Amino acid sequence: MTTIESTAIKPDRTALPVSAAASPTMAALRQFARSPAGVVGAVVLLFLMLATLFGPSIYGVDPLDIAGAPFTPPDAVTWLGTDYLGRDILAGLLQGGRATLTVGGVAAIITIVIGVTIGSLAGFFGGPIDTALTKITEFFQILPPLLFAMVLVTLFGQTLTTVTIAIGVVSWPSAARLTRAEFLRLRNLDFVKASRAAGAGNGHLILRVVLPNALPPIIVSATLAIGVAILFEGGLSFLGLGDPNTMSWGLMLGQNRNYVLNAWWTVAFPGAAIFIAVLAISLIGDGVNDAINPRLRKRG
Questions:
Q1: Is the separation of the CB atoms in 89 and 78 below 8 Å?
Q2: Helix, strand, or coil (residue 1)
């Protein structure tokens, strides 16, 4: 009697290629790392942040103390010279960078929160809501931002908090218009209609469906808003509307602006710090755009 044995055919797993799909975050990071401008900007900004965080304790000089005679040029004792009161310029840069970078980051957050909220509501709902919010955006957009910020700081006091809020309040219209345009483009696409047909409410559609797909240009805008806020703080302080009790790069510019012809270092070094910080943030914005732009990612 013949016994027929059946053997199960096992799939050859070794013959199948194993490809692990990279997460969007890792893909974006790799694309960012391939952007020379973005990498340089990130390194420079990281250096500035570390210098402002640990520099004051390492250097050990109080930026408000008299370190030498007024208008002492850079030498072996005061590396970057002294200002009109005899305060150490390098100590002021190290300590003032904390306030300047903090103002830039917090003001950018305020700008994006207000702009994204108004722009998303206008673009998603359309109709009368869109018309009303667009008119409000246009009203704020035609106001001179620096003049409007000056009025707010004058009315509510020259504190760092007031300056930060004022910068955020006057800078949101561009973020709102960008967000509105993205929501108008996305709200009628098939994946949004499918989510609506599945019973998703307006809040879910805005926050979980449309907004994540509108984030790439908003993230780039948020990055650049930090640099704009730093310039705003420098402009307000240059005009004498900064917080006189908190050292910042803009305050150093404003207090020494009348002595630029006699003591160039009192203005040149704070101005260079602002320029380098804004340039680094701008380069990071270019790198972020390269990393999250689908067309550039496919091309790379």
A1: yes
A2: coil
Across 192-201, b (16+ Cβ under 10 Å) vs e yields beebeeeeee
Amino acid identity of residue 107, one-letter, is A
Cα 232 to its chain centre, rounded Å, is 13
For residue 35, what is the DSSP state? -
Torsion-angle region of residue 125: left (phi > 0), alpha (psi -120 to 50) or beta?
Answer: alpha
Take residue 75 and report the two structure tokens written for it.
């030498």
Give the Cα separation of 257 and 95 in Å (integer).
19
Q: What is the pLDDT along the chain (300 residues), one digit of tens a residue?
A: 444 444 444 444 444 444 444 577 787 788 888 889 899 999 999 999 999 999 999 998 999 899 889 999 999 889 999 999 999 999 999 999 999 999 999 999 999 999 999 999 999 999 999 999 999 999 998 888 889 999 999 999 889 999 999 999 999 999 999 999 999 999 989 999 899 898 889 999 999 999 988 988 898 899 989 999 999 998 898 888 888 888 999 999 989 988 988 899 999 999 999 999 999 999 998 888 888 865 555 544
* Helix H or strand E encompassing 147: helix 145-156
Instruction: Tell which residue, 295, 152, 174, 293, has the closest CA to residue 228.
Output: 174
